[in-house]
Amino acid sequence: PVPADSVFHLGKQGRYDAILSLYHDQGHIACKTLDFERSITITFGLPFMRSSVDHGTAFDIAGTGKAGTVSMLESTLVAARYWKMKHQ
């Protein structure tokens, strides 16, 4: 176990390949602070790969061309990498 108040700092230094948070909001605070544009969610324990963006739906800017695409692209790329590893 690693202290929750320093685990993300240590992860940013490269000491870990991944950090598993037991609570959704606990992990999101750190991830969004470190890299809001690229942070994604991966759900484990399902019979299929599920990844999603970490931001909200942004209905207020839908159709305006203002929404960023980085998080969606990152989520798609991570899902593709997992699929490829599983099917090699």
Describe the model.
Keywords: Metal-binding, NAD, Oxidoreductase. Its EC number is 1.1.1.262. Pfam families: PdxA (PF04166). It is an enzyme of class 1 (oxidoreductase). With 88 residues, the chain is mainly alpha-helical. Helix content is 40%, strand content 9%. It contains 3 helices and 2 strands. It has a two-stranded antiparallel sheet with strand order 1-2. The chain is globular.
Descriptive terms for the model:
88 residues; mainly alpha; 2 domains; two-stranded antiparallel ribbon; 2 strands; 40% helix; 9% strand; globular
Write a concise synopsis of the structure shown.
The chain is mainly α and 88 residues long.
Topology:
Layout: H1 7-12, H2 24-35, E1 40-43, E2 50-53, H3 70-86
Distance between the termini: 32 Å
| Total count of strands | 2
Strand order of the largest sheet: 1-2
Q: Estimate the mean pLDDT confidence.
A: 88
Helix content: 25-40%
Compressed to H and E, one letter per element, the order equals HHEEH
